[in-house]
Specification:
Elements lengths: L1 E2 L11 E2 L18 H7 L12 E5 L4 H12 L3 E6 L2 H13 L3 E6 L5 H15 L4 E4 L14 H29 L2 E6 L12 H21 L4 E8 L14 H15 L9 H12 L10 E4 L16
Parallel strand pairs: 3-4, 3-6, 4-5, 6-7, 7-8, 8-9
Antiparallel strand pairs: 1-2
The protein binds NADP nicotinamide-adenine-dinucleotide phosphate.
NADP nicotinamide-adenine-dinucleotide phosphate (NAP) binds next to helix 2 and strand 4.
């Protein structure tokens, strides 16, 4: 259990149900949200915006990456995605194909250069290059600085920062050859808003922003746009501890949102983040590169002022 450091009225309690990643500070809220419709939107075919496009996603076996793979496939793209868990990967691949889309799962660990290179090569060769890359794989760590082991620090940086660098490293040559491409890298609202337990995570997600800015400058005149997406707390296994029954999780989210996200007072659904990725990858933002785009329900906008009782 982690201490909730938010300052809102404490009638609902200050102890978070969440350990680990959720305590990094990606809190949100849920109730009052059109969760079901938002969730369905990601897999609904809305248009053919990405018809025939080749889309690569790291971390597509779960959560945001999975919802984004489904959304791109529903919009006509051919999607190559990776993750370490082969069973889940094959399941997501099957779900997309059963829904009439095209997807290929490749088992790859983004910490390992050869695996990232081989994943990128396989997607490019199967689908004829890479039009869009969503470098999304990531892990959390919710420990105070003096509790964090060196190995844990290294693992977060290797996954979240080095993994994004490696993906960009191997994707860009294909995009340079084609003369176009869009890269979106998953940072986090935690890049802008640290928590006491977000040392490794916040550092890694700021590194993602750094990679994005440098790459945007490096390739802007060569047809490649590169942007960072900063999701706020999103209802995925990243924040939901295993084994919590649905009704208990729903009740938790109902309490958690108003305490932690002063804008929309709810967590995002993965499909809502996926829709933002598709928007950024579309032709609707030709002049946007090097940007950090927060999709966080207002959590980085600031906090409401809570006045103590006046004397
Ligand atoms: N959920 C949130 O509140 C939130 C908020 C802000 C930012 N984010 C960011 O959003 C991204 C996706 O998170 P999520 O919420 O969708 O969490 P999730 O459901 O836990 O998904 C994480 C994905 O990353 C993959 N991954 C992790 N380590 C990997 C590795 N070494 N090699 C390859 N794939 C790896 C996982 O696949 P395998 O386990 O199969 O390898 C999984 O597909 C992360 O970068 C996270 O930091 C999440």
């Amino acid at each position: 259990m982690e201490t909730n450091t938010n300052t809102k009225a404490g009638s609902l309690g200050r102890r978070s149900l969440l350990g680990g990643a959720a305590a990094l500070g990606m809190a949100g809220s849920v109730l009052g949200a059109p969760a079901a419709s938002a969730g369905q939107a990601g897999s609904r075919t809305r248009d053919g915006r990405f018809q025939g496009k080749s889309v690569l996603i790291t971390g597509g076996t779960s959560g945001i990456g999975r919802a984004t793979a489904q959304a791109f496939a529903a919009a006509g793209a051919r999607v190559g995605f990776c993750g370490r868990r082969a069973e889940l990967g094959r399941q997501v691949e099957r779900e997309i194909r059963d829904a009439g889309g095209e997807a290929t799962y490749v088992q790859a660990d983004v910490r390992v250069a050869d695996q990232v290179r081989s994943f990128v090569d396989r997607v490019a060769s199967r689908y004829g290059g890479i039009d869009v890359a969503f470098n999304n794989a990531g892990i959390g760590n919710g420990k105070l600085p003096h509790e964090l082991s060196v190995e844990e620090w290294d693992d977060v940086q290797a996954t979240n920062a080095r993994g994004v660098f490696l993906a960009v490293r191997y994707e860009v040559p294909y995009m340079l050859e084609a003369g176009h491409g869009v890269i979106i890298c998953t940072s986090s609202s935690a890049a802008e808003q640290a928590r006491p337990t977000s040392t490794a995570y916040t550092a890694s997600k700021r590194a993602v922003q750094g990679i994005v800015k440098a790459a945007a400058l490096a390739y802007g005149t060569r047809g490649i746009r590169v942007n960072a997406l900063l999701p706020g707390t999103t209802d995925t296994p990243f924040v939901r501890p295993p084994g919590i029954p649905d009704d208990a999780w729903t009740a938790y989210k109902k309490a958690f949102g108003p305490l932690n996200i002063d804008g929309l007072e709810r967590m995002a659904e993965p499909a809502e983040i996926a829709r933002a990725v598709l928007g950024l990858a579309s032709d609707d933002f030709p002049y946007m590169t090097g940007s950090s785009v927060a999709v966080d329900g207002g959590s980085t906008a600031g906090r409401r002022m809570i006045q103590p009782s006046r004397p």
